[in-house]
Amino acid sequence: MTFDEIHKSLLSRFGADVITGLNADAIDPWIEVASESIADVAYQLKHDDALKLDALNDLSAVDYLEPDEKLAKKFPYDPHIAVVYHLYSYTHKHFLNVKVKLPRWKNDVEGQLPEVPSVSHVWAIADWHEREAYDLMGINFIGHPNLVRILCTDDWVGHPLRKDYEFPLEYHGIRGK
């Protein structure tokens, strides 16, 4: 299936409230899905015989903090976090990128992690990817079977890949800067 055919198929199945956008002109085209529906859409993407997107190649997160003035003219956006799912079908040999936009903080309360349903029950490898995104970007994957830090120590404070993260001056007596 082509990118446009996949988009039309998802739009007819889930509607515009769930399939909230797309960018077909990007170098890596993507479809945007409403955060609360990602688990249902993921299940469909993997199990629909016409799609069979059976491999989650990567799940990553991007922090879109306030753009600087020069970037804002070329690429305007509101601050948010995006979770990006890179999918592949071994059966049909096609790719799909799916994005979910999240607020930087749940309910706009600084320190409360944004939430999105886990897809670890759809693609088992998501278990590790979601733990990494939780650890480094501070995204709470609802329904994840073991959402604990994977790269930082258990007592680490904050999420070091967020653009507003402030590296500690000291950690257990070791100078940081």
Provide a descriptive summary of the structure in words.
This protein has 177 residues and is an alpha/beta fold. The chain has one domain: NADH:ubiquinone oxidoreductase Nqo5 subunit (Beta Polymerase, domain 2, 2-Layer Sandwich), CATH 3.30.460. Helices cover 23% and strands 26% of the residues. The protein contains four helices and nine strands; from the N terminus they run H-E-E-H-E-H-E-E-E-H-E-E-E. The protein has helices at residues 3-14, 38-47, 69-74, 126-137; strands at 19-23, 30-33, 55-64, 80-88, 95-102, 115-117, 140-142, 170-171, 174-175. A five-stranded mixed beta sheet has the order 1-2-5-4-3, covered by helices on one side. A two-stranded parallel ribbon has the order 6-7. A two-stranded antiparallel sheet has the order 8-9. Strand 6 (115-117), helix 4 and strand 7 (140-142) form a beta-alpha-beta unit. The longest helix has 12 residues, at 3-14. The chain is globular, with a radius of gyration of 17 Å. The N and C termini lie far apart (51 Å). The mean pLDDT is 94.
Salient structural properties:
about 180 residues; Beta Polymerase, domain 2; 4 helices; 9 strands; two-stranded parallel sheet; 5-stranded mixed sheet; alpha/beta
